[in-house]
Amino acid sequence: MKTLIFKRFLWLLILLSAMVLAVTYPVYLQYQQGVKQRLLANEETSVVAASQLIQQEMDEQLHVLGLIQHSARLKDYLSSFDEAHRHQLELYFQQVSTAFHRFDQIRLLDNAGRERVRVSLVKGQDTITPKAALQDKSDRYYFTEAKNLAKDEIFVSKLDLSVKHNEIELPHKPIMRFSVPVFDHDGQRAGVLVINYLAKGMLEKFRQQMRKRANQQGMLLDEQGYWLSNHKRSNEWGADLGKPKHTFANMYPEEWPIIARQRSGVLETKAGIFRFETIQPFNFNTQLPSHFMAQHDVVLTEQSNNNTTWKLVIFVPYDYIHQRSFLYQTMGKSLLILLGILLVGAALLIAIVSTHLRVRRREQRRLNEVLHDLYDNAPCGYHSLDDQGNVIRINQTELDWLGYQRQDVINQPFSQLLTPDSKDTFEHFFNGFTQGLPQENIVLEMQRKDGSTFYISNSATILKDKQGHFSAARTSVFDISERIELEQRLELLANNDGLTGISNRRHFYERGTFEIKRAQRYYQPLAVIMIDADHFKNINDQYGHDVGDLVLQALANKVNENLRETDIFGRIGGEEFALILSPTPVTFALEVAERLRRALEQVVVVTNKHEEVHFTVSIGVAALSLPEQTLDDLIKQADIALYQAKAQGRNQVVLYQDES
């Protein structure tokens, strides 16, 4: 009897154990897979954020490179190669370097590879290299690769450590070199523009992004598997530092061939899970937010694309996965032991299934809370509009930008949040959008509750009802105030004289030509005044060019103090200044000129040695008299009168008289 009971017990035990195992094992596998998927889903945020960070950084460098390449000061120098334009270009390079503070060097090489202008970042200061210290770079790869490129082609080097005097600079300087051909005003090839971009800031942002992850094992590799960034800093720059074994391939010999061959994916190994993604920071055709796209068409050479093909690799060890798995924790092990002892198959199975259901519901709620938090606290703004343009949903980020509470905005017209000028732009954009016309990167100026404004770039997608009609617009909003401010600042640099702050020659001629045509159209009087500092060369020779610069600045400031808002004032030569008065009769122009002469006669410039420098000016005046006259004609006439003033003893005003 006992033997039979024991045998039946064994069979029942085996059967119940098999039933429990058959039911619980798939659940276990599914649960473990769910843990992995949730961890990988969280890692996707890091992958996307890091990829966008790198591509945005590269997009900004292309933007700056294009601005310098097409700048008027660069083309002016390339068309003349004279010292005055060279000095202006040096100041422009220095101003750009100071504005961004991320370039180790900005250089202009001529067609033979000889440096013409170089500005370097030395001990945190943007320093102009003296002409005598400029070097021949004709044998350097960044010149040979770029010297024969087409007009819109760009060469980009590998990201490596800077070498100076055949030794790696300390502290380490990760650098990428951007080279582009440049052309003069006539479209003739005139040299190569090279900027050395310091990638230290970009790599530090990448590391900060990786440190936000739980296990912080995020890496950036070059095409050979050397670390550009690693959570263990000692592994970085193996190729540059002569450490050929410090590669991903050496540490993970089985994983590297797969990661190197495939563009992206997930690789499970014995040690853990690798999530990898190929980053090509200059491939702007990828599905990234439109505000990261390049602002102009550029063509990179094939070598440039090879140089900048990187791998982003995130590693999640199984130890970390197990820490997140319920079954590897104390409570899970206790349940397994209890299940093996009691063999209450059905009850235990129901308990496991119900527990899993509750865990899943709780996890879903948590995920919903995370998604809601990501929506509300995203780094960009989000809002949705109904078919009337009223706000039906908005995230907290955008509310914080505006300074409003949610109840102040919901069900209110979105146009009320815009400045008057942007309302018309929005109405045009929204009407076209509701008709199904594509609308992206629309720039609007929003107005905060306190009255201040900021610029946004927004892209929208259409939500349709079941009948296919427009239902709502879901819009992502990016604050681009810094970019707009940068563009305005660069425009100011392009139009203003670097020394005195007034209009430069090009900008003066643009405004002056328009003003003369307007005066001729409406038959209004107009006068041109030329001002030249007397004995300016003697001032430079006696006190030095720095004092000469102070004299020119004092001259410009004093003239500005005595002008109207409608007057046009610019520096058109070394110590030559021009002034356009409109609408102004010649008698009044002569009074203005005499008043300026007397005012400038009283100016005192104090040098660093506490010496007082006085100066006078000679002034020539010419009046618009013929309908076919141009600005050049008036400038020449005023210049003739100016030289008459100098010939008659200087420090006086002379009106041009037509002797014909």
TrEMBL record:
Enzyme class, broadest EC rank = transferase
Query: What compartments host this protein?
Result: Membrane
Q: Which SUPFAM superfamilies match?
A: Nucleotide cyclase, PYP-like sensor domain (PAS domain), Sensory domain-like
Entry's transmembrane regions:
335-357
- Cofactor(s) it depends on: Mg(2+)
Q: Which CDD domains match?
A: GGDEF, PAS
InterPro entries named among the record's database cross-references: Diguanylate_Cyclase (IPR050469), GGDEF_dom (IPR000160), Nucleotide_cyclase (IPR029787), PAS (IPR000014), PAS-assoc_C (IPR000700), PAS-like_dom_sf (IPR035965), Rev_trsase/Diguanyl_cyclase (IPR043128), Sensor-like_sf (IPR029151)
Recorded GO cellular component terms are: plasma membrane
Keywords assigned by UniProt?
Answer: ATP-binding, Kinase, Membrane, Nucleotide-binding, Phosphoprotein, Transferase, Transmembrane, Transmembrane helix, Two-component regulatory system
Q: Where is the GGDEF domain?
A: 524-658
The catalytic activity of this protein is classed by the Enzyme Commission as: 2.7.7.65
Q: Where is the PAS domain?
A: 363-440
Q: Where is the PAC domain?
A: 440-492
Could you mention a single GO BP entry for this protein? Answer: phosphorelay signal transduction system
Assign the protein's first listed, main location to one coarse class: membrane
Q: Which reaction does it catalyse?
A: 2 GTP = 3',3'-c-di-GMP + 2 diphosphate
Task: Recall the GO molecular function terms of this protein's record.
Answer: ATP binding; diguanylate cyclase activity; kinase activity
PANTHER family, sorted:
DIGUANYLATE CYCLASE DGCM-RELATED, REGULATORY COMPONENTS OF SENSORY TRANSDUCTION SYSTEM
Protein's UniProt name:
diguanylate cyclase
